[in-house]
Structure formats: C-alpha cells, structure tokens
Amino acid sequence: MLPPMISVAEATRLVAATIRPLGTELLSLSLAAGRILHEDLRADRDFPPFNRVAMDGMALRYDALVAGQREFLIAATQFAGQPPVTGTPATAAVEIMTGAMLPAGLDTVIRYEDLLFRTDETGQRHATVQALPPRAGHNVHRQAADRQCGELLVPAGTRLEPAEMAVAATIGAATVAVARRPRLAVVGTGDELVPISAQPAAHQIRRSNALMLQAAAWQAGAEADSFHFDDDPAVLHQELPALLAGYDAVVLSGGVSMGKADFLPEILQELGVEQRFHGVAQRPGKPFWFGARAGGAVVFALPGNPVSTFMNFYRYVQPWLQASQQPAGVAATGRGPVPAVLTAPIEFRPAMTHFLLVSLEYSPDGRLLATPERAGGSGDMASLLTSGGFLELPPEMEHFPVGIVLPVWRFRE
Ligand SMILES: Nc1nc2c(c(=O)[nH]1)N[C@H]1C(S)=C(S)[C@@H](COP(=O)(O)OP(=O)(O)OC[C@H]3O[C@@H](n4cnc5c(N)ncnc54)[C@H](O)[C@@H]3O)O[C@H]1N2
Ligand code: MOO
C-alpha cells in the first residue's frame, strides 16, 4: 500500500536534504569545459595587460596633431608579439599592428584607412594623417580598462562555459579545481522490456527509459552507467547492492506502484535503503519512491511510465545532480524553472500538482509563451518530442486562465 502522499514541496525538501558536496578534483583546463568550478578565478594581470593597439596603422603623439603636425616619419614598424619600440622622436611615428604593445611616449593610433603613405628620395617612409582622431588614446585599449590584476573574475560555483574557458585560459589557469562528476546508475526494470536491438513480440516493448535517463544525466554533468533487471526479487537482491555501494545515486524506473511485480520499495528497504517517501501528490509520477542508504547511494525509484520517469528526472534528479556539484555553501544559479505565460485555459481539479507538457516560444514582445501539448498521458513518450518543458500547476488551484504566469521546467536548451 502507498502511504499517504506528500506534497511536491515536501518531496522537494526531502530530496534536497540528501544533497551533499561530492568532492573536488583537479583537472587540466582542456578537460574541464562544462564542469562546476570549485575555486575562485582572479585576474593574474590587468585586462588588458598592457596598452594594446586596437587597429592596424600608425602610433603617434596626440600632442603633435594638436600642434598642427600632419605628416610623420615612420621611425619603426612593430608587430604584435614584439617588445615595444623605444626612442621614437617626438615628431615621428611607429607603424604598428593590432595586438602590439603601445610604445612608451606614444598615445594614439591612426588606422591605415585614415593615412596616406609616401617614400622620400632617401627611402624613408612618411604617413600623412587624413582624418583627425577625436581624442588622445584613440584606438588604444588601455591597460586595466576592463579588469584589474587581482579582481575576482569567475566565482566558485560557476559552470565553465565557453566564456569562462576563455577567461580561465587567459589567466593561465592550466589546472582548475572542479566538482567531481556525480556517478549515477540508471536502471530499467520490467519483464516486458527487451533490448533495443531485439524485435519485440506483440506483448513486449523495447527498453527506452534507461537510455533516456542516461542522456539526461549526461546533460546534467553526471557520469551514468545503464543497467536493466527483470522483475525478479532474487535478481534485484543480487544486483542492487553493488550499485548502492558503488554510485552516488541510483535512478530506477518501474516497479514502484501497486502491481504484483512492483517489488522495488520492499527490496530497497531490505537492502538498507531508508525510505524517505513513497507517493507524491503529483500527476504524472505519483508513485515516486525516494530513499537513502547511510554512507551510500541516494535512490530515486521513478514510476516507469516514460513521461513520468522523464518529468521526475527533470523535477527532482536533475536539481539534485546540479546542487551536488556546487561547492559547500554555494547555491546553484541559473537553473531551475523560469516563468512562462499560459496561452490556453486549463482545468485540473485533483488536489495535486499537475505537470503539464507545453511547447514554448517567445512572443514578439519577448514573453515566454507556454502552449499545452495534446499529450496522451504518462505513457505518451512521443509527446516529449514536440514539447520544450512542463508547467508546474500548483495543487490549490483548479482553473488556470490564459495569461497566468507559472513556472516551467525546460528540458531543452
Ligand atoms: N493500482 C494502481 N496501478 C497503478 C498505479 C496506482 O496508483 N495504482 N499507478 C499508475 C501510475 S500513475 C504509474 S506511473 C505506473 C507506474 O508503475 P511502475 O513504476 O510500477 O512502472 P511499471 O508498471 O513497471 O511500468 C509502467 C509502464 O511503463 C513502461 N515502462 C517501464 N519501464 C520502462 C522502460 N525502461 N522503458 C520503456 N517503458 C517502460 C511499462 O512497460 C509500463 O507500460 O503505475 C500505474 N499503475
Ligand atoms: O503518475 Mo503515473 O506517473 O501518472 O503515470
């Protein structure tokens, strides 16, 4: 028998109570894209580190232009990567390339497009300024204009996305401290399920949940191994202990409702997994069972209907995975539900949370619009293909009018 169901809020709280940091590892930056940073990254130099020439052309003293000089002797040519030219006479200039360090004493760069060059009879080159720069410092990216040496650039807890990778590389963070990836075992159960390469008999279907869960786990930054066990208590008793001991979390699908072959809640408890709840006032996904083993894995035993498995993963497992990768005391940012505007009225009378598949698009004025999908219930896995997320309709309401703003859990980028 299912005990009385708890609310989604309470289930969320009980799942969150099992979150603990899983540890830190040092990784070469080249392998760290997508990882959660476990150290602060600070500027090791000013940004930019020197007065950086921003246009190909000629560097000169702005004062000379103010004094009326227009033609300049090219005293030297300097490329990016070369030490700055020294000793340029006050009335001369340096032909210079983007990325070069501005020579001491010079302060302004005129681009080639605004110069006219000539070579005199002695072979020396001169350039005449055709268009005056608006101010001293034109076309120079000043040292420390963007960030100062020592400034905090990327705080611990940030995901290393491409922008963070660029900044980490430029400060020389060749090795970074990042979260260890959570290790997940995803397990499909059920005798009706055959391998995906098999031709199912009329009464059989192919195993799809474990591969779906594995892909979703990878998307959330976890390592995930996939297993399948039949609905056989002896097999489950034999196989599950190694998973409970060897993984941070075990995510099972199927075998948790009232059926005669729904053994998992009992077996998990026999194997020392303490039940935290069984049954959540939500549709779909009501028979969700959750437990934890002291010093071992957290167990999400998700209802087997594919849409139930899918939504429970995104609603409970994914936030757990993300929070487990945060450094101690740092909340996960940037993930979780976002507000969306309902575009068609919905009635839902049961006093439970309703997770409603929606397609998502932006209105011309930039609001995220959620349109209910015509889905066939928790077995209709094809409805996931045309959906971008699911709305969380709170249990205390029955009528959801057009225009109401509700949280949506997105499962596509
Ligand atoms: N008497 C009751 N029956 C059911 C209840 C209930 O409260 N009382 N709840 C229903 C709800 S809601 C759901 S959801 C399902 C969940 O049941 P289980 O978690 O025990 O899942 P199964 O019975 O094993 O499977 C349900 C369904 O999903 C298919 N499935 C399962 N695993 C996979 C997989 N790996 N790949 C693809 N498809 C899978 C399975 O074949 C079934 O069709 O229980 C209701 N019953
Ligand atoms: O709760 Mo079940 O997951 O509705 O189909």
Automatic annotation (TrEMBL):
Give the UniProt entry's GO cellular component terms: cytosol
This chain's source organism reads: Hymenobacter psychrophilus
Question: What family is it from?
Answer: Belongs to the MoeA family.
As cofactor, the record names: Mg(2+)
UniProt pathway annotation? Cofactor biosynthesis; molybdopterin biosynthesis
Cross-referenced SMART domains = MoCF_biosynth
Query: What is a single molecular function from GO for this protein?
Result: molybdopterin molybdotransferase activity
Q: Pfam families recorded for this chain?
A: MoCF_biosynth (PF00994), MoeA_C (PF03454), MoeA_N (PF03453)
* Function in brief: Catalyzes the insertion of molybdate into adenylated molybdopterin with the concomitant release of AMP.
* One GO-annotated biological process of the protein: Mo-molybdopterin cofactor biosynthetic process
Against Gene3D superfamilies, the record matches this protein to: MoaB/Mog-like domain, MoeA, C-terminal, domain IV, Molybdopterin biosynthesis moea protein, domain 2, Molybdopterin biosynthesis moea protein, domain 3
Top EC class of this enzyme: transferase
Question: What protein name does the entry list?
Answer: Molybdopterin molybdenumtransferase
Reaction(s) this enzyme catalyzes, per UniProt = adenylyl-molybdopterin + molybdate = Mo-molybdopterin + AMP + H(+)
Keywords from the named record: Magnesium, Metal-binding, Molybdenum, Molybdenum cofactor biosynthesis, Transferase
- Kindly list any coiled-coil regions of this protein: none
Q: Which NCBIfam families match?
A: molyb_syn
Q: Which residues form the MoaB/Mog domain?
A: 185-323
| EC id | 2.10.1.1
